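Q: What would this complex look like in 3D?
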Amino acid sequence: MPFWLDPKKRAIFFQFITLCMVGLLAYYLTSNTIHNLKRQNIATGFGFLHKTSSFEIGESLIRYSAANSYGRALIVGALNTLYVSSIGVIITIILGTIIGVARLSSNWLVSKLAAIYIEVFQDIPVLLQLFFWYSLFYTTLPTPRQALHPLPGVYLCNRGLEIAVPKADPAHGYMAIAFLAGCIFVYLIRRWAKKRRDRTGQLFPVFRVSLAILVGLPLVTWWLAGAPTAMSTPKLVGFNFTGGKNFSPEFIALLLGLVLYTAAFVAEVVRAGIQAVSKGQTEAAMSLGLRPPMVLNLVILPQALRVIIPPLTSQMLNLTKNSTLAVAIGYPDFVSVADTTINQTGQAIEGVALIMVLYLIFSLLTSAIMNWYNKKAALVER
Amino acid sequence: MANVIQPSRIEEIKPPVVHVGAIGWLKTNLFNNWFNSVLTVVTILFLLKTVPPFIRWAFIDSVWNTPSQACRHATGACWSIIPHNYRFIIFGFFPYNLQWRPLLAMIILFVLLFFSQNRKHWKKSLAYSWIAGLFIMWLLLKGGLFGLASVDSTQWGGLLLTLLLSVFGLTAAYPLGVVLALGRQSKLPTVKMLSIVYIEAIRGVPLISLLFMASIIFPLFLPEGVTINKILRAQIAIILFTAAYIAEVVRGGLQAMVRGQYEAAESLGLNYYQTMRLIILPQALKIVIPPTVSILISAFKDTSLVVIIALYDLLKTTQTVLSDPRWMGYSREAYIFVSIIYFLGCFSMSNYSRKLEKELSRGD
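A: Here is my prediction, written as structure tokens for the whole assembly.
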């Protein structure tokens, strides 16, 4: 029998051919690249990470100056990316849920407004939205001297948003620790309450107790630490504000663009999730004698979340990936810093590789967590 | 038959007036309980606060076709920026007196799209007319044949470039995506592995990193002396990017095929290629048309990212107009105009996709 008629041999042959073609392509590209790099005298390797960066970064969560290395500059960028995406994700989920529920509201006006919002914001490229919000800062908002003052302690001008914040105090650190401890405590209580319910059928007011712990523990800590109330308010000194917390126009435009764009998609996801739970489920739960909060908690949410969470995660990943558009309006996220690094060192391959690796890590981590959740939440058929 | 109740005897009672007509509608849709009533009132107050000033700005106090100096005195919107610059925004640097050619190309594209909407036209002839149409469009833009003056592709820009990148991007990405999807479903471990790595890697990175790669690394991949122009490089990046997403959509269609289809094809004695070409793909690809339209929508929106590697697409030509000292500061008007273009494109496509989904699920 000739080998092309034997399925096993043919399979091996095909795979061999594919591997050869991919290998040849890779070899061709690498050899060209090495030749070109040599010809243009471009350094290779990641040695540049230790060299002095000699550029400033507008916003940074850690201490950074032009005398620091490229490596530290990139860390600053990565932290900025994480910062803007994590804040964005939280606001997006809240706003998206509100709009998604509003879309299903029995109130005609609210439902139609939500529909218009979803349609309009989904259909305009996020980059265009970023440019729009960013340009609003420069064309409409006044200078710091005539800053808008909508609420006490809040100023809005073309230098960004200034808000009053509590003055730094060691108490805040203790409060954060107390909050984390509260989270762990709540987790344990929930587990215990579920076990007890399964065993004895007795109910425990988990939600109220959890809320009390999560709010109460930090408050008590704050009070024990001497109840510091000093505020740092923004004040106009010369041509700009000092004190308070400043959010730059770049940051706000980026956040606004990402949140408003992604919230439209999240709203659709939430709507689909809620609609996926049939009305009979609610009615059945009610006829069993469950009260409305328990119907929501025990019957509707577990089923709706199963539908909502996977697409929601991919939207959150989209938001993180779209945060790379920061480079277009000058917010120093990872891509923006990497771009500057590439321009200064000329080491484009390493720079782009770093960008890709960072975002791949984000995505793979998220999908790993998602797969774990999916397995846990999947229907167990008996 | 005597005890049958005569329906005509019963007097028809009209429903109470609060349940029908305008009042009834208001009562059921806006004021059916106290929460909804509060919501309605708050929403109406919000609309009263925002809509009239906007209308005043956009329509009443605005100027529509004046030189830029007149805009400085206007208190409303300066829409004059559009009529003075629309040809640059839409055609970019295409030679001014040759702009009928991109216009014609766009009209051909719209006619083809419009014609393809109807499912009755989905035949082989449609595919041929698309190939012919794309070729004619290419000829119109590039020139150099049949007495048309040659236009360098670096001069393509504006809406033209946006459409070009998205339509050619999707057309070229589609076959690649189908191959990748088949590869991912393949029984051959190497082919499967390579497809999975490609799809997951591309879907895991932002489009910008691919565009950076296209604009700065791609030239290094080529042998000495060979260069490819920037638009084509961006186009390749968009194709590689879109293909991974199409692969996932097509995979969904392939997974929806029941085993019986494969088994029936096998028992007929068809080999792998015949099974795929004649049995599986025609059915699977039909299922995934609505999600494919959504990929076209995202491709259409995502092409705006080429701004970042300094290609003159719709968004970049608009920004160029805004950097002209005469029109500086009218970014709101210009961006709203561009938003409307994008909105119309995406909205009509997503509407179509929804309609199609309904038709397909009804199974007619």
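A: To summarize the key features: Chain B is about 70% helix and 0% strand. Chain B has a mean pLDDT of 82.
Q: Very helpful, thank you.
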